[in-house]
Amino acid sequence: MTTIQRTAVITGATSERGIGLTVARRYAREGWAVVILDLDGEKSAKTAAEIGNEFAVPAFGYEIDVANEASVAAARDAVDAEVRSGSLPAVGALANIAGITSPVPFLETTLELWNKVMAVNATGTYLVTKAFLPGMIENGWGRIVNMSSVSAQRGGGVFGKVPYSSAKAAVLGFTKALARELGDTGVTVNAVTPGAVDTNIRVGTTPELEAAIARDIPLGRTASTEEVAAVITFLSSEDASYLTGTTVDINGGSHMH
Ligand SMILES: NC(=O)c1ccc[n+]([C@@H]2O[C@H](COP(=O)([O-])OP(=O)(O)OC[C@H]3O[C@@H](n4cnc5c(N)ncnc54)[C@H](O)[C@@H]3O)[C@@H](O)[C@H]2O)c1
Q1: Cα of 64 from ligand 1 centre, angstroms
Q2: Which of 16, 139, 158, 191 places its Cα 20 to 30 Å from the Cα of 130?
Q3: Long-range contacts of the stretch 199-203 (C-beta < 8 A, 24+)
Q4: C-alpha span between 14 and 8 (Å, rounded)
């Protein structure tokens, strides 16, 4: 029987073909209790229940808008209540996966789009981390993994993703600065920068574009969500104890440095 020691909180984890759902399933498979936080509360709860049943781990799901401080506080309070009641073990890992893209050429972007993309990808990472970090510090152990993107390192390329690339670059600075600040707390903070991953966020591309993207990748193909999830759960493990402030490039070899 699996020994449940810690809870992993995953934002943006209800999208059927998404990275977050695969990450949540992988945490559960590795014996973590899981909390799914996403925009649709009912879907979050249903997804959590399915994962809980399949992997025989405690699992809860709640509504969250990561860009809204009150919504983040409400979700954190709901999780805290389950921890206090003994239904969930203490939160040990936070995977900030929720994100939106901005497939618009720069001069067609609006301030509204810029603000929204920054709010979800960058401010969301800030707000959710700030909400769950005190508990980790109190326990003297924690793993925070932030979702950036190859777009932060080399621009969004074909998608004209200036706001997206900017927000994902903010996530890298956030990760490094917070990792330094938390050095002696037992909490590590790392980021991942996937290249193209086969999920719904990339709907709207064409087969020709997909072929061109694949040609640009030394491994000759996009990543599976499972390949991204494997890195995120590793960064959340005991074994990743000497990694903090790092960025793991999951890009099939298409490095920029
Ligand atoms: N797919 C790729 O090629 C790729 C590459 C690099 C990075 N990423 C990043 O990985 C993450 C997951 O992307 P995906 O491809 O699985 O996309 P996806 O659209 O399938 O999933 C995104 C999830 O985030 C949730 N979400 C959006 N806004 C939210 C908000 N305000 N509050 C809470 N949840 C919110 C959505 O409901 C959805 O479940 C994103 O941060 C994305 O930028 C994706």
Answers
A1: 14
A2: 16
A3: 199/15, 199/17, 199/18, 199/19, 199/225, 200/15, 200/16, 200/17, 200/18, 201/15, 201/18, 201/99, 201/100, 201/101
A4: 15
Strand 7-11 to 187-194 pairing:
unpaired
> What's the CA-to-centroid distance between 61 and ligand 1, angstroms?
17
The whole-angstrom distance between residue 112's C-alpha and the CA centroid of its chain comes to 23
Range in 12-16, 23-27, 197-201 with the lowest mean pLDDT: 197-201
Alpha carbons 113 and 116: distance in angstroms, whole number: 5
CATH code of domain 7-247: 3.40.50.720
Nearest CA to ligand 1 atom 14: 18
Please tell me the least confidently modeled range out of 59-63, 124-128, 147-151, 160-164. Answer: 160-164
Enzyme catalytic residues: 164
Mutation test of ligand 1: which of 10, 117, 145, 199 has the most ligand atoms closer than 8 Å to its C-beta? 199
Domain locations in the chain?
7-247
Average pLDDT score over residue span 153-165: 82
